[in-house]
Amino acid sequence: MRRLWLLFAQTVTVCLGVLFIVATLRPDWMSSAPTPPAKPSAPAPGATAPVGQVSYAAAVAQATPSVVNIYTSKHINVPLIPLPPDPELERLFRDIPGFSRRKESTSLGSGVIVRGDGYILTNYHVIEAADTIAVALSDGRETSAELVGADPESDLAVLKIPLPDLQPISFNGEHKVQVGDVVLAIGNPFGVGQTTTMGIVSALGRNRLGINIYENFIQTDAAINPGNSGGALIDTSGRLVGINTAIYSETGGSLGIGFAIPAQAAHQILEQIIQTGTVTRGWLGIEPQDITPDLARAFHLKQTDGVIIASVLRNGPAWRAGIRVGDIILALDGEPVVDSIGFLTQIAPLPPRGEARLTILRDGKKRDIEVQIGTRPRIRKP
């Protein structure tokens, strides 16, 4: 029995010695916590981005071949003697021999290939009064462009180029743009070359800016600068959301307030210009005016929605239907009329010679009047 006890004591002593040596020399062997995983190394150049990393490279790669640079030139008469900025003086001296000299003026902008057969959408102010129009593609090809038609009232124009293997951009279709959506602006700012900037949709339905007659802009804080006009505003899938048109700026550079024409409206104008060479809009021959609080009190109205008729063109569509000055229009074909800008926008897409129903308020009573839509006269610039 004594011998077994001695054997047990020696075994315990040896085990404790081994445990002491291990704890002293390799304490990590004694820890029960799992070894943390090794930190991943940085990906090699050209490798795919890790899962979860945000990148819009695919959207840009899809849309970039569809965005072009536009260069225009025109000849202008420059007076040899400085004159005050008076149109009447300029018109008076314009035709006097030797008073002015012709000078070539150049400008730049952007455009978007919208059809594989060469049609390009851009802004009217990019190509206005141009003698020559040149287009440079992202793949290095260059060519002259033909003006198919223009719509100054929406500041859109359609060009056509005679090149094969073009990649048209995809429209956003029925996908509804929302405030807060991420968007990318692609264009040629300041002529530095094709550039992409990122932002969000800041607001929708911007109007009363004094830029165009018909205004329904998408506002974005994606950087838009001179030269971006006519370029593409795309979503994160590379689809066309709008045509970049204007900026609000006190310095000439981007202040984070840019405006784009919605793609759906641009597509409708594109199709009309391709088919007929011009844009036809509905017209009633009236001058609507917003209902101010003072007018609402004067007419004993409980709301300020709707428009009051300030003038009616004699023998125009509204006149023939019986609309008179002082009538208040509340709805068009059952759709509420909110203000004068919105009312003009509601009338514009109506087909000429078609019928529309106006809900009006006259002498405190509502009534419906059927009116035949006319064709809006084209405004000619001097």
From TrEMBL:
GO terms for biological process: proteolysis. The keyword Protease applies. Residues 273-341 form the PDZ domain. GO terms for molecular function: serine-type endopeptidase activity. Keywords: Hydrolase, Protease, Serine protease. The keyword Protease applies. Belongs to the peptidase S1C family. This is 2-alkenal reductase. It comes from Pollutimonas thiosulfatoxidans.
